[in-house]
Amino acid sequence: MDNATDEPARARYRRSAGSPRGEARRRELLAKITDDVAENGLVDFSLRRAARAAGTTHKVLLYHFEGAEDLLRQVVFALRERRIGNALTAVAAESPTLAGRVRAAWCSLRDEETRLRRVLDQAMGLAMYDPGRYAALGRGASQQYLPTLVSFCPPHWPERRKLEVAEMILATLRGFLVDLLTSPDGEGAEAGVAALLRAVEREEAAP
Fold this sequence. Notes:
By secondary structure, this protein is mainly α. The protein has 10 helices and no strands. Residues 1-24 are annotated as: Disordered.
């Protein structure tokens, strides 16, 4: 990260929040920067690199964002939203069982672009490496993914049960995604998913 994120620099620029025109410009800039990060990863991310990707200056970015960390958080959020949207599209064509929905979501995750998977794993790595600075990247992942997984559960289940099962699915699929990045054939991940689906089917069959 560059030093364009310090408080004095931020204080010189007025945020655009609340202005419809400013919000539209912020979304436009964020989309360009998100595309750049999806293509090139998080290594050496800075306001100046983001400004080049967006065709503007870091001072303009400071008008629309709080700083590099705020921008990075919003970029990662946008990339996760892409992942969730892809998974929901796949799930919509699947049988309306929890196991079927998890299977469809897994296939979407398994087949997504490796670059996207690596970027989101890099974000989690930053959260683990420097939690004081990037903890929001880690917390944000669960906050984004869990509501979708909870929505996969049978509607008559108690909310606590839905959340417990969603937590299990999320933690397990995260591990399998890491395995896909580190194993040459992915057989271990597929075997693990098969076991997860059997466990989900048993959970669905339980009273």
